[in-house]
Amino acid sequence: MTTGLFLIVLLGVAAVAPFLRKYLKHQAGWVYAIWPFAGFLYYLSLLPAINDGVIITETFTWLPVLGIDFSFYVDGFSVLFSLLVLGIGAFIMVYAGYYMRPYPMKGRFLGYLLLFMTAMQGIVVSGNLITMFVFWELTSISSYLLIGYYHEKPEARASALQALLITGFGGLALLGGFVLLAIPYGSYELSYILSKPEIIQGSNLYLPAFILIAIGAFTKSAQFPFHFWLPGAMTAPSPVSAYLHSATMVKAGVFLLARLNPVLGGTELWSYTLTIVGVTTMFTGAWLSITQVDLKRILAYTTVSALGTLVLLIGTGTEYAINAAIIFLLVHALYKGTLFMMAGNIEKKTGTRDLSQLGGVFKYMPFAAIIMSLALVSMAGVPPMLGFLGKELIYEASVAAPKAYGFILILGFLTNVILVFLSLRLAIGIFWGKEPSYTKTPAEPNLALMLGPFFLVLASFVLGLFPSTMANPLTSKAIMAISPGNDAIILKLWHGFNLVLGLSVLTLLSGYLVFRYQNNIIPAIDRINIKYFRREFTRLFFSMIDSFLILTKLKTKTLQHGYHRFYLMTLFVIASILVWVMIWRADPIILELNFSEMPLNLIAVVVLIIAASLSSVISNSRVIALISMGVIGFGITIIFIAYSGVDLAITMIMVETLMIILAMAVVYHLPKYQNFSSTGARMRDGLVATLVGAFFMVLVIQAGTSDLEAPISEYFKEASYSLAYGRNIVNVILVDFRALDTLGEITVISIAALGIYAMIKLGKKQ
Amino acid sequence: MLFLLAILIGVLYGSAVYLLLRRNIFKLILGLIFLGHATNLLLFVAGGLTSGKPAFIRGLQDEAIGMSDPLPQALILTAIVIGLGVTAFALTLVYRFYKVTKTVDFDELSENE
Questions:
Q1: pLDDT value at residue B113
Q2: Helix axes A319-350, A76-99, angle to 10 degrees
Q3: CA–CA distance from A164 to each of A137, A146, A194, A208, A649 (Å)?
Q4: What residue in B sits closest to A712 (Cα-Cα)?
Q5: Closest partner residue to B73 among A645, A694, A721, by Cβ?
Q6: How many angstroms away from the CA of A620 is the closest CA of chain B?
Q7: Rounded to 10 degrees, what is the CA torsion of A27, A29, A31, A35?
């Protein structure tokens, strides 16, 4: 019960957060952090049991008929992610509580942030695909609210919309993928699906399910070519960026891929798609970050690169790769959370986050500088930080990859060189170097702003220093959960002189060299980018949206043209085509023509009606139209009499008389017929009319010659006299058996009469 | 006779469709009236053609055999009356329409909007 209950309470805290802020004043961040922190402690306390192999499942019935339940599935992987989401979340709440002080609607902001946290936490503990999808969409919606928080800025609104459209599109694809995945299983339960991967792998639904799920994961995790929404999302306030980039949102896609690795993974399609997309994203992100000058934008591109690395590792799928993926996930969450919070601090204290406007900050905030530099050391992969272990494992995985992915090793190496260079550039560029004139004197950030960065860096440091005692218990079950059959590797800070260590040293050296000659290298790369990669994805995206809108308008104009006769024509043509197809495919009708059954007088009547009908169509005179109307009406009356419809005939005579008088009265006021349509239009309409008329003809013959079920009117025949004491069965049906229908009919007539009266009166007054 | 009536109903439907596709609003109403007639006849024919045996009973044995089916007739009767209401309303609407817009052309109406 705890997992579900915890989520409900978290959601409740999110709901009341905006209202409580008034009373909590500036302590709100600390107070709201209590709940995620409590959750963090709870999942930490679960760790020993989880490491003994326990998996916690809970189910709350939702739609049992469809097999959809709110169910939860907590294994080692869920616990690792929960610790990240809630642990970093608690620090983010404290940080945001202080950071957002100068801005309006702080209470609402904190509420959104808690909602975002709930959504992410929900994803990582979901035990049912539909449950996961609900939380997945909740992260898209809450991130939209957070990214667009500075809603008075047009670029914030554009970024928020872009993020929502891309992740929302991915979400739709994901839902389709989940449904397809669940079909062969007949269940949405994760525990069942995870236990039987062979069912989907042997099904021909594997390919479409994989494609749709991959689109969902790739859009969420900003994989190439969907990567551009993430740098755009850095228009959000820093607490959001710190959270979104480290533990939530973008990690949801990685989480999903890792979670489904035991089910969907292991195939050629899976490993090729993931490695190619991952490696492209990894290098693109790193490459694009070189020429940026905005601190947050640089960090955003390195996140893209890191996400690419994670997808690549999951796709590679070897023991080393999966180990590297989990460790790197932890490494990245810790340093990226720190760096974004620090970026916010630097902007707050110096008034800028433009790298060219920063320098010499160390002497104003030495403590902050040390913390941030340590996080950068982790990003560069230098011992003793955990980042070193992450990078070592990635190299290990690339070297040991079963297929000779030479280019992965090369691109991975280049990416790491860029990361080393960026770390040096940020650390030295911000804290040392020439000091520009600041608008305000920078000062050390206070406790609330530094708490998160400090503890995250400390965690990275301790985990890196004592990997086998501290990091292994955290990650070993997570590794086994997403890749059954593979074991967790015992982590060591030092594992001898080998190729991997050599690569590490070479990376650091090359990174330093790039930094040393950056004044030559950056402009050169800038030139390459301008020459070959001018196409901006964001602009491309919005021009796509624009052309989509134009297309929609065109479609609306074509289909919703406002001409009643073309609506009707569409209806008639499509209906008759469908019916003609049916007729063509049906058995031929055998019709016996028996002329003795055709009394001459009736033949005459029918011919007369046909003639009247055609003349009213062709004629240009209103009087002829009225006369034809009469002929048709009274002709039908004769047919009714001939075939035992006495009551029908009586009614028809009265109604027809009334109708003609009414029509005459109206026609009297109307102008003569004018020639509105061209001959072409008449021919076209004539063709449509013939199509429709002919299929009705076939329909009548079909209906008249088919053997019907026994009529249900036997009861009326029997009961008409014995129960209702009426001899005329039609009358009895109308006033007795179906009396309520008749009452309804009378009501219709009365309302019509009232309407007519009102319309005529209205005309008189004017 | 079925064949002949089938042709009749087909012609009535065809005329109704053709009239419904006109631009003149009065012809539209005319088409509506024809559509009603055609549908009533369709129901009538589908219910089976029985000549000279209306659905009356006197309480005798076996008199119901071969009698015309009263149920479709009851339905058609309702339809005729409702049809009258609808047509009368539509005709008055046309009258008002012309009084207000001074045109009977549908296209002019959509352009004026």
A1: 45
A2: 10
A3: 10, 11, 30, 24, 65
A4: B71
A5: A645
A6: 11
A7: 180
**Quick check: is B53 in a domain?**
no
Q: Which residue has the higher pLDDT, A637 or A760?
A: A637
Residues 63-92 on B with a CB inside 8 Å of A are 64, 67-71, 73-74, 76-78, 80-89, 91-92
Residue A742 sits at the chain B interface (C-beta within 8 Å)? yes
Contacts of A714 (CB under 8 A, 6+ apart): B64
Q: Which of B5, B18, B41, B103 has the highest number of chain A CBs within 10 A, making it the mutation to test binding with A?
A: B18
Got the DSSP string for A472-529? Answer: HHHHHHHHHHHSTTPPPPPP-S---SSHHHHHHHHHHHHHHHHHHTHHHHHHHHHHHH
E strand or H helix at A231: helix A229-232
Interface test with B, best of A565, A573, A607, A617 (most B CBs within 10 A): A617
Distances (CA, A) of B31 to A235, A697, B35, B81: 62, 18, 6, 17
Contact A663 B2 (CB under 8 A): no
3-class secondary-structure state, position B67? coil
Cross-chain CB nearest to B68 (options A617, A644, A696): A644
CATH number assigned to the domain comprising residue B73 = 1.10.287.3510
Binary contact (B71, A716; C-beta < 8 A): yes
Phi-psi domain of B66 (left: phi exceeds 0; alpha: psi -120 through 50; beta: other): left
Quick one: which of A306, A660, A267 has its CA closest to B37?
Answer: A660
Q: Inform me whether the C-beta atom of residue B35 falls under 8 Å from chain A C-beta atoms.
A: no
The angle that helices A499-516 and A406-431 make with each other, rounded to 10 degrees, is: 50
Q: Indicate the residue type of A399.
A: V
How many domains are there within chain B? 1
Q: Which amino acid is at A34?
A: I
Cα separation, A628 vs A615, whole angstroms = 7
- Inside any domain, residue B61: no
The answer to whether ipTM exceeds 0.85 is yes
CB contact under 8 A, A659 and B21: no
- C-alpha to C-alpha distance for A696 and B9, rounded to whole angstroms: 7
> Which pLDDT value is given to residue A748?
92
Cβ within 8 Å, pair B10-A697: yes
Across the interface, which of B46, B50, B104 has its CB nearest the CB of A644? B50
Own/partner long-range contacts of A739-742 (Cβ < 8 Å, ≥24 apart): A741/B78, A742/B78
Largest CA distance in chain B: 68
B106 min Cα distance to partner chain A (Å): 8
Which residues fall within 8 angstroms of residue B24, CB to CB, at 6 or more apart?
A673, A674, A676, B104, B105, B106
- The pLDDT-based confidence of A638 (bands split at 50, 70, 90) is very high
How far A608 CA lies from chain B's nearest CA (Å)? 10
Q: Could you report the per-residue pLDDT of A305-337, keeping only the tens digit for each?
A: 999 989 988 888 888 888 888 888 888 898 899
pLDDT reported for residue A139: 92
In chain A, residues 572-601 whose CB comes closer than 8 Å to chain B? 572, 591, 593, 597-598
Helix-, strand-, coil-residue percentages of chain A, each rounded to 5: 75, 5, 20
What is the domain range of residue B106?
A: 2-48+67-112
The average pLDDT across A726-753 equals: 91
Shortest CB distance from B55 goes to which of A673, A677, A729?
Answer: A729
User: Which chain A residues are closer than 8 Å to B14 by Cβ?
Assistant: 689-690, 692-694, 696
In a domain, B56, yes or no: no
Residue B12 lies in a domain: yes
Length of chain A: 766
